[in-house]
Automatic annotation (TrEMBL):
Pfam name, any one: Rer1
Cellular localization per UniProt: Membrane
Predominant place of localization: membrane
Protein name per Swiss-Prot or TrEMBL: Protein RER1
Keywords: Membrane, Transmembrane, Transmembrane helix
Species of provenance: Rubus argutus
Family the UniProt entry places it in: Belongs to the RER1 family.
Keyword Iron-sulfur: no
Ranges annotated as spanning the membrane: 38-57, 63-84, 117-135, 141-158
One GO CC term on file: Golgi membrane
Record carries keyword Membrane: yes
Mode of membrane association: Multi-pass membrane protein
Entries under InterPro entries matching the protein: Rer1 (IPR004932)
Gene Ontology BP annotations: protein retention in ER lumen; retrograde vesicle-mediated transport, Golgi to endoplasmic reticulum
Amino acid sequence: MEGVGGESASAASPVNKWIYDASRLYQYYLDKTTPLSVYRWIGTFVLVVIYALRVIYVQGFYIVSYGLGIYVLNLLIGFLSPLADPEMGGGSDGPLLPTKGSDEFKPFIRRLPEFKFWYSFTKAFCIGFVMTFFSAFDVPVFWPILLCYWIVLFVLTMRRQIAHMIKYKYVPFNLGKQKYGSKKPSAGSSGRND
């Protein structure tokens, strides 16, 4: 009885070890790209252009593209939304958005962090690109209707999101270091000797 299953465990061991090593190497390189956000996004947009050229060349897979568009819109909403939504009652023990001018400043914490947004965005386009090589996903459809519907959905969703930003007075973008008024020289330090 001792030998039962022993052969399959030893045969699966090298495969499991290879999968484990490959996933660790993948995670290592993924971690190395974390601080390089500009280069990550440049690579992703190159991938998006390659995907678009593939769809244009094949003249199909519009349903896959529409699905990608809906998924990216969903990711964008998560990226632009605060972690603790004041409309939902906060729901989090973490910092909340200030709702009054007298409230203490609290940094904007996204529901979907930039790295996860980039990773999901890139992974979605990789999967979509692979799907363009299988004819089962090329469903014939009149693509202008899908495009118009997606544009209407995008406009309505972004209008609602912008109204939410205005109502709760937050900006989901970090536009660099905040600049305060320019430093004016005082009257005594004008540099003139009378």
